[in-house]
Amino acid sequence: MVRHIVFWRLNGATEAARAGQAATIKTTLEALNGRIAGLRKLEVGIDFSRGEASADIALYSEFDDRAALDAYQPHPLHLAAVAVVKPLVSERRVADYEL
Questions:
Q1: What's the rounded mean pLDDT across residues 19-23?
Q2: How high is the pLDDT of residue 34?
Q3: Which single residue of 15, 42, 56, 70 has CA 20 to 30 Å from 95?
């Protein structure tokens, strides 16, 4: 199994703007569950700590294997989600690892 984790900081000018962006991202990404082969699980969490080092939002996902993750990246449903998420983001960090 492969885990794919992403953290984003959002570019909204206010707390309210970032909260709206986070809700949009959560809805958009979680809609991918059950729609892409090899994607076992995908969840999105919105940060509540609001610390200086905090990300605004985190994605946790599980894939069958590296091939499934590789197939997910160019998948049309994922690319449509990226088109929604990318304009809202000021910073992105990612980690992929195998169990």
A1: 98
A2: 97
A3: 15
Q: Which residues contact 84 (CB under 8 A, 6 or more apart)?
A: 24, 25, 28
DSSP 36: S
Show the domains of the chain with their CATH numbers. Answer: 2-98 (3.30.70.100)
Annotate 60-87 with b (16+ C-beta within 10 A) or e (fewer): ebbbeeeebbebbeebeebeebeeebee
Name which of 79, 43, 40 is nearest 63 in CA terms.
40
Question: In which element (H, E) is residue 64 found?
Answer: none
For tokens 């082969």, the residue is 37
